[in-house]
Design the sequence.
C-alpha cells in the first residue's frame, strides 16, 4: 500500500517478491504475542504481519525468506531484524532467512541476496516518483469524483500500466504516461465542487501511509469531500542529502562524500522532479514536488536540522510548507 510498484521492481531484478496485505486486528494480536509489547506500534504490526503470513500456510518455510527495509538509523530502523528474528524463532520459523533491504547491504548482509544497484536505482526511483504522482492525482480527485469509486479504479489502472513498464525496465516509459494519467483523472472530476477544504497529512512513516494504523482517517476525510494532501514517499529518501550535509557542517559526523558533490547529485534528481512537475501539471489540482533543501529551510525556522531521530525535522518542515502553500489544516 505504501509502495505498490515494489514487487514489479524486484521481479525486474529477478526476485519474486510478495507484498503483504494491509494490517488488521489479527496482525496486532500476532505482533503482541511475538514481539516485545513495549516497542512502537508500527514495529508490533510489521512483526505481526510477517509471522501471520508464515502461519497462513500459503508459504513453504523451506522455500521462502522474509525481507524488510532498513535505514540503519535509530529506533526500530536498526532493531527490526533482531526483533523479527527473535519472533520467528519463537514461532517456529528459525530456519527462514531474514533479508534486509538497505543501501549497500550494510544491515544484516546475506550472501544469497544481491542487487545490482546501478541497474535497480533508476527503475526504483521512477517507481517511487510515479507512485507519488498517482497518489497526488488520486487524493485530489477522490474528494471530487462524479461517481464513487472512479478515482480508486483509475489509481489501479495506472499502477498496473506502470508495473508493465517496470518489468520491461522502461523508466522513461513510466514518466511518459503521466500526462495521459492526468487527463484521465481530470475526466472523473465534478467541477461543481470548486475549491474544497484541504488537510495535509504528516507523521511517522508507517502510520501516515497505513490505513489500518491511522484508523482510516484519510478515507473518512475523502468521504466528506475534504481534499487530502498526501505525504510523498520520496521525501523520506531525499532528506538523507540534507542530513549528511548537516551532520558534516556541525561536526557530528564527517561525510565520506564531499558536501558539494551531495548537492550536485541532488540537483540531478531535482532537475528530474521539475520535469515531472511539468508533465503532471495538466492535472488541474496538482500540487508539485518541492525541493528538499527548501523544505529544510522551512524546518530551520522552527527546529534544528540536527534533529534527525525518526522523522526529525521533516515533520515540522512539512507543516511549515503546508502553511506557506495555503494548506492550513494538518493531521499528524
Sequence:
Amino acid at each position: 500500500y505504501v509502495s505498490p510498484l515494489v514487487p514489479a521492481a524486484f521481479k525486474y531484478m529477478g526476485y519474486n517478491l510478495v507484498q503483504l496485505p494491509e494490517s488488521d486486528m489479527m496482525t496486532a494480536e500476532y505482533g503482541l504475542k511475538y514481539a516485545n509489547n513495549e516497542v512502537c506500534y508500527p514495529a508490533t504490526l510489521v512483526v505481526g504481519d510477517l509471522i501471520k503470513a508464515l502461519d497462513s500456510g500459503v508459504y513453504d518455510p523451506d522455500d521462502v525468506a522474509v525481507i524488510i527495509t532498513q535505514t540503519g538509523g535509530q529506533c526500530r530502523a536498526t532493531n527490526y531484524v533482531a526483533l523479527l528474528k527473535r519472533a520467528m524463532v519463537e514461532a517456529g520459523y528459525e530456519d527462514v532467512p531474514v533479508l534486509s533491504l538497505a543501501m549497500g547491504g550494510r544491515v544484516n548482509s546475506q550472501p544469497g541476496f544481491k542487487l545490482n544497484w546501478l541497474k535497480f536505482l533508476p527503475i526504483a526511483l521512477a517507481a517511487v516518483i510515479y507512485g507519488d504522482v498517482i497518489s497526488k492525482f488520486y487524493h485530489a480527485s477522490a474528494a471530487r469524483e462524479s461517481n464513487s469509486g472512479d478515482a480508486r479504479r483509475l489509481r489501479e489502472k495506472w499502477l498496473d500500466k506502470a508495473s508493465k513498464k517496470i518489468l520491461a525496465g522502461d523508466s522513461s516509459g513510466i514518466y511518459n504516461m503521466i500526462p495521459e494519467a492526468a487527463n484521465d483523472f481530470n475526466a472523473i472530476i465534478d467541477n461543481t465542487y470548486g475549491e474544497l477544504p484541504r488537510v495535509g497529512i504528516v507523521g511517522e512513516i508507517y502510520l501516515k501511509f497505513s490505513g489500518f494504523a491511522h484508523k482510516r482517517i484519510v478515507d473518512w476525510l475523502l468521504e466528506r469531500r475534504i481534499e487530502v494532501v498526501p505525504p510523498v514517499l520520496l521525501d523520506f529518501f531525499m532528506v538523507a542529502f540534507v542530513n549528511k550535509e548537516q551532520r558534516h557542517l556541525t561536526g557530528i559526523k564527517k561525510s565520506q562524500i564531499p558536501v558539494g558533490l551531495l548537492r550536485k547529485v541532488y540537483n540531478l534528481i531535482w532537475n528530474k522532479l521539475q520535469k515531472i512537475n511539468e508533465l503532471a501539471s495538466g492535472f488541474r489540482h496538482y500540487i508539485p514536488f518541492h525541493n528538499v533543501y527548501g523544505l529544510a529551510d522551512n524546518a530551520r525556522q522552527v527546529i534544528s536540522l540536527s534533529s534527525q531521530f525518526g522523522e526529525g525535522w521533516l515533520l515540522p518542515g512539512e507543516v511549515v510548507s503546508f502553511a506557506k502553500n495555503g494548506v492550513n489544516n494538518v493531521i499528524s
Remarks:
- The beta strands are 66-69, 98-101, 198-201, 227-229, 330-331.
